[in-house]
Specification:
The complex is a heterodimer. By secondary structure, chain A is mainly alpha-helical. Chain A is 76% helix and 3% strand. Chain A is flat, with a radius of gyration of 26 Å. The relative contact order of chain A is 0.08. By secondary structure, chain B is of the alpha/beta class. In chain B, helix 6 packs across helix 8. The chains are: A mainly alpha, B alpha/beta. Chain B: Pfam families: ABC_tran, CBS.
């Protein structure tokens, strides 16, 4: 990057946005209890002119760095943004200690629009900086770890217990952990079962190419059915089967509950999983398999030693898409009594308790992000270990 | 009589071999006997059936009718995987496994044959040395880290790994630039002079065929149009098609490219050696007549001095020596 680099417009806009949400929107709200509406507090109300001046100085520094974005300036900006994100929970700890009277057990702090917007803007700035600096996976994961540790430490210290979100959590921590475990088990089962089915379908389509069209159209149609409708469609047949065969009922198969959720989620997962498995196996270069056969490898050896390893990165991509999709969809399954983190979302919606909704939604988002990142990293690692940046032979 | 004797000694025999894909006859009742140690080049335009013929020999394509024999035994009598492990196979795109290192790629067939690991490692080192590739540099590399020429060398090494007596090569140098291609052709000739494999080599490039082949088999529309040595084809092309493959009016130059200067030069007597001015242009005795002719044309001279490998003057070559009546010297 040349020293006289042009200003970075993305960062400048984000800095301006951060300034306006910090100054214009309430950052937190203080509620005496769960039902009473809270009182929104702005930065000015919380910290007075000193806090406003400090924040404006920091943002001005960021803007100055974005105006002349040399590599060193961008690295400094990254450090600043990272620091802001890492200190955010600790700022909340300080504010909570000041605003909440420890004697009032049900008083709580809600996160205001300004804070959410700030979080969003800071994360965008972080992404922009990471992309500009083109850092490798190690610093990225390192940064993620630092932020996660900071948040975890703030939570573990108990300083955030008066957050509305944490009040909801402490009110039902046992239920929360059970729901979290259940959610993860459900998703794992969905991914495992659809992987097996997709592998079988992909292999069948490779052997009998006429199957291909029919299979993909059926899977596409399944994909278009709204999830609630699919649950409804499964209700009657499953209830009938459970009544007809008692051993199914003993297993817990009923018209509602985990059985229809599992079936529906597998049905949704099959299209991305099967398509990726099929394409991955099919697009392995013909000359490589030709050479493998010509050298005297048996069909089994060609598959296990050549075709499958070469297809694996693309297949992993299918697993990633499926897992992320299932993590989100499993929330909807709570509607038919399948449990999981979705339970809190729908309870919260019913009671107009937004913090309870967040208690369900935030872990789902976090898990989805983690799984997405982990599978992406795994596929990238695999590609790298197979030495496949490109397959072209240079001159 | 001569034909029968040759057939008895043949390593690979194709006896009225036909391949039909549905209604299309790709290879039409061809007969071919390739003696042990011969480098036989199948040449023709695309779609003439040369690749199909090659791939029928290791049963990647099953022939429809006729018999293919190796060492007098029908290839259908072998288990097809065992047959292929006995036959080296190299293809244009190399077909190297992108997820395996060079060393692992080369050791493929020995591993299929369950050689002990130490023997495989020794064989891989031996082959890398044979192909002029430094083991410490190349053994751990992946195929995408190689240049086209290096990748194709590894492809050849892999084909040679289990020391097969028969080697099938399907346009192995077709995707390489001219300079790399030429150096690999030289390499193949050098290897062949040491190893004496029975090689079936497919190409569409007649110059490559003329350079490499002990015997050229010209194919067209699934049939063999003509077969013989490069010299024989150039002297008497069977028809207009073979003639056009041979380059039409360039045929004289192609022929000149096959003849070494040493065959036409006049040896110098000791007395003459001293007389020659040192600055006179010279060629090597191993150069081709074509190269000598080109030098004469370019420099506008009608005679050249000839040096041997050590640079010693051994003879002279004049335009008159180059241009002799066809057949007079061969």
């Amino acid at each position: 990057m040349s020293p006289a680099a042009a200003p970075n417009p993305v960062l400048l806009v984000l800095t301006a946005l951060a300034a306006s949400v910090m100054l214009g929107l309430p950052l937190i709200s203080v509620q005496p209890n769960r039902i009473m509406p809270g009182e929104g507090l702005t930065l000015w109300a919380l910290g007075g002119p000193l806090a406003v001046a400090a924040v404006l100085t920091l943002l001005a520094a960021l803007a100055w760095l974005a105006w002349r974005p040399t590599r060193r300036a961008l690295a400094t900006a990254l450090a600043l943004v990272g620091l802001c994100l890492a200190l955010l929970p600790w700022g909340l700890v300080a504010v909570a200690a000041e605003q909440i009277d420890p004697d009032m057990a049900s008083a709580r702090i809600g996160l205001g629009a300004g804070l959410w917007a700030l979080l969003f803007v800071l994360l965008l700035a972080l992404l922009e900086l990471l992309n500009r600096l083109a850092l490798g996976p190690l610093p990225r994961w390192g940064l993620t770890l630092v932020l996660a540790l900071s948040l975890f430490a703030a939570l573990a210290g108990g300083g955030l217990d008066s957050l509305a979100l944490m009040r909801e959590y402490h009110g039902r921590s046992a239920t929360f952990h059970a729901a979290l475990r259940y959610h993860l088990v459900l998703v794992a089962a969905v991914v495992g079962i659809s992987l097996l089915l997709a592998a079988a379908l992909a292999l069948a389509m490779r052997r009998w190419s006429r199957l291909q069209r029919g299979t993909f159209s059926v899977l596409s149609v399944l994909q278009t059915i709204p999830s609630l409708a699919l649950f409804g469609l499964l209700l009657a047949p499953l209830a009938y089967l459970a009544a007809r065969f008692t051993w199914l009922g003993d297993l817990g198969v009923r018209g509602i509950g985990w059985a229809p959720a599992l079936i529906a989620l597998v049905a949704y997962s099959l299209l991305p999983m099967t398509r990726n498995a099929y394409v991955a196996l099919d697009e392995v270069a013909a000359d490589v398999t030709d050479a493998a056969r010509g050298m005297g490898m048996s069909p089994g050896q060609v598959f296990w030693q050549v075709r499958l390893p070469l297809a694996l990165p693309v297949m992993l991509e299918g697993i990633r898409i499926t897992a992320v999709q299932a993590i989100g969809l499993a929330a909807v399954a709570a509607l038919i009594g399948a449990g999981g983190l979705g339970t809190f979302i729908f309870q919260g919606l019913g009671q107009a308790a937004m913090d309870l909704v967040l208690l369900g939604a935030l872990p789902i988002i976090l898990i989805a992000l983690l799984v997405d990142g982990a599978f992406s990293a795994l596929a990238e690692q695999l590609r790298r270990s197979q030495g496949r940046g490109d397959t072209a032979h240079g001159g | 009589m001569a034909d029968e004797r040759q057939a008895a000694a043949a390593k690979i025999e194709l006896d009225a071999v036909t391949k039909r894909f549905g209604d299309v006859t790709a290879v039409d009742a061809i007969r071919l006997a390739i003696p042990r140690g011969e480098l036989c080049v199948l040449v023709g335009t695309s779609g003439c059936g040369k690749s199909t013929t090659l791939r029928m020999i290791n049963r990647l394509i099953e022939h429809t009718a006729g018999q293919i024999r190796i060492d007098g035994q029908q290839i259908r009598d072998f288990d097809e995987q065992r047959l292929r492990r006995r036959i080296g196979y190299a293809i244009q795109s190399t077909g190297l496994f992108p997820h395996w290192t060079v060393a692992r790629n080369i050791g493929l067939v020995p591993r299929l044959l369950r050689w002990p690991a130490s023997r495989i490692a020794a064989r891989v080192s031996e082959l890398l040395a044979l192909l002029g590739l430094d083991e410490s540099e190349f053994a751990g590399k992946y195929p995408h880290q190689l240049s086209g020429g290096q990748a194709q060398r590894i492809g050849v090494a892999r084909a040679l790994a289990a020391d097969p007596e028969v080697l099938l090569m399907d346009e192995p140098f077709g995707a390489l630039d001219p300079i790399t291609r030429e150096s690999l052709q030289d390499e193949l000739l050098r290897l062949q002079s040491r190893l004496h494999k029975t090689i079936v080599f497919v190409t569409h490039d007649m110059d490559e065929a003329l350079k490499l082949a002990d015997r050229i088999v010209v194919m067209d529309a699934g049939r063999i149009v003509q077969q013989g040595s490069a010299e024989a084809l150039l002297q008497a092309p069977a028809d207009a098609f073979v003639e056009s493959l041979l380059g039409g009016r360039d045929r004289g130059l192609k022929h000149a490219a096959l003849t070494r200067v040493a065959e036409r030069m006049r040896p110098l007597s000791d007395a003459q050696r001293g007389d020659q001015a040192l600055e006179t242009l010279s060629v090597a005795a191993d150069d081709s007549l074509r190269q000598a002719l080109s030098l004469m044309l370019w420099h506008g001279v009608d005679s050249l001095l000839v040096n041997d490998v050590e640079g010693q003057m051994v003879g002279s070559l004049s335009l008159r020596d180059v241009v002799v009546a066809r057949g007079a010297n061969s």
